[in-house]
TrEMBL record:
<protein>
    <recommendedName>
        <fullName>Phage holin family protein</fullName>
    </recommendedName>
</protein>
<feature type="transmembrane region" description="Helical">
    <location>
        <begin position="12"/>
        <end position="35"/>
    </location>
</feature>
<feature type="transmembrane region" description="Helical">
    <location>
        <begin position="41"/>
        <end position="62"/>
    </location>
</feature>
<dbReference type="InterPro" id="IPR007165">
    <property type="entry name" value="Phage_holin_4_2"/>
</dbReference>
<keyword id="KW-0812">Transmembrane</keyword>
<dbReference type="Pfam" id="PF04020">
    <property type="entry name" value="Phage_holin_4_2"/>
</dbReference>
<feature type="transmembrane region" description="Helical">
    <location>
        <begin position="74"/>
        <end position="93"/>
    </location>
</feature>
<keyword id="KW-1133">Transmembrane helix</keyword>
<keyword id="KW-0472">Membrane</keyword>
<feature type="transmembrane region" description="Helical">
    <location>
        <begin position="99"/>
        <end position="117"/>
    </location>
</feature>
């Protein structure tokens, strides 16, 4: 019984963990939008919803295609997937606008900022 309890606790994935990861993702996304031409987010709710949609699309890509969409995790394939996910997010989130070049540059900036800020974002 104690093993089951500690085993369940060792995963560390609860609502607080999810909220912290969402905030870190939103910060990384906001920095990326600020540094990338052709990439704009118009408001805090668009930023938070964009981070949530990015996480959901990354999860879907990982489950369906087996590709981690982190720009530096899988080489060129991960970079392309990250750019596509950033570009597709604009169709789900109002106030999230990105051009194709903005998505490509944004994937690069997102990868660099994600490497600097601790915690897995995308």
């Amino acid at each position: 019984m104690a093993d089951q309890y500690t085993e369940g606790k060792s995963t560390g994935f609860g609502i607080a963990h999810f909220i912290i990861r969402l905030i870190v993702s939103a910060v990384v996304l906001g920095i990326t939008a600020a540094l990338t031409p052709g990439f704009s987010i118009s408001g805090i709710w668009s930023l938070l919803l964009g981070a949530l949609v990015l996480a959901a699309l990354d999860y879907a890509a990982l489950r369906l295609l087996g590709v981690n969409a982190s720009p530096f995790s899988r080489g060129i394939l991960g970079f392309i997937m990250a750019a596509v996910i950033i570009y597709v997010t604009q169709f789900f989130v109002a106030g999230f606008n990105v051009t194709i070049w903005g998505a490509i540059i944004g994937a690069l900036v997102y990868g660099i900022v994600d490497a600097i800020i601790p915690g897995k974002s995308m």
